[in-house]
Amino acid sequence: MREKTVRTILRSLDDAFRYYGLPMLKQTQKDISRFMKLGKEPPESLMAGGATVGIVVAAEEQLRKMPEPSTEELKEFCSPTWILPHLRSLAFGYAKKLPKPPGGRPRTLSQQAAKQACREIGELLGDGVRLRDAQVRAALRHGVSFRTIQRAWQANRRARKPQEPAS
C-alpha cells in the first residue's frame, strides 16, 4: 500500500480514537517521549495512551502489507463502522502482548515506606525503646498494622544478613 494511503487511513483511525473517547495519537506520543527523555516512568493515565500507540503501530504494519485499495474500499477503511471491529481485534492482539499484572493483594506499605519505617524503628531502638513498642509506633505513624511493620522489619533483617560463603 502507498504511503499516502496508509497516512489517510491512520488519520481516520486517529479520528475514530477521538470519536470513541480514546487518547489521541500525536499528543500521546509527545507526552510519552517527554517522560522517556526525563528518564521517568509515565503515569498510569498515559499508559492507556501507550496502548493506543501500540495499536496504531500494529495497524500501520498490517496496512503496509495489504494491496492498494480501490476508492470505494478506501472510503470503507476510513469509516468508523469499519474501524471499530478492526480496532477491537487489534486491541485484543496488542493486549495479549502486555505483561500480566502481579497477582495477590496490593501492598499497603511501599518499599520506600518500609525502609523509612525500619529506619525509624532503628532510631527508636537506639534511644532505648523496646522492639515491640518501636514497631507499634512505626505502625501508627505509617497507618498500617503492627504485623505489616513486623514483616517489613523481618524482610529488612533478611536482606541485611550476610550470605554464608559456599564451600
Mean of pLDDT: 78
The portion of residues forming beta strands comes to under 5%
Q: Find the structural class using helix and strand composition.
A: mainly alpha
Number of β-strand runs:
0
Helix content: over 70%
Element-level helix/strand string: HHHHHHHH
**Largest sheet at a glance?**
none
What are the segments in which pLDDT stays under 50 over at least 5 consecutive residues? Answer: none
Question: How many structural domains are formed by the residues?
Answer: 2
Question: What is the CA-CA span between the terminal residues?
Answer: 65 Å
What is the overall silhouette? Answer: rod-shaped
How big is the Rg? 26 Å
* Tally of helical segments: 8
Could you characterize the architecture of this molecule?
- This protein is mainly α and 167 residues long.
- The chain has two domains: 3-97, no CATH class; 111-160.
- The protein has helices spanning 3-19, 25-38, 44-65, 71-77, 80-97, 111-126, 131-142, 146-160.
- Helix 3 crosses helix 5, helix 6 crosses helix 8 (146-160) and helix 7 (131-142) packs across helix 8.
Topology:
Layout: H1 3-19, H2 25-38, H3 44-65, H4 71-77, H5 80-97, H6 111-126, H7 131-142, H8 146-160
Q: What key attributes describe this structure?
A:
single chain, 167 residues, mainly alpha, 8 helices, rod-shaped
Short description:
This protein has 167 residues and is mostly helical. It contains eight helices and no strands. Helix content is 72%, strand content 0%.
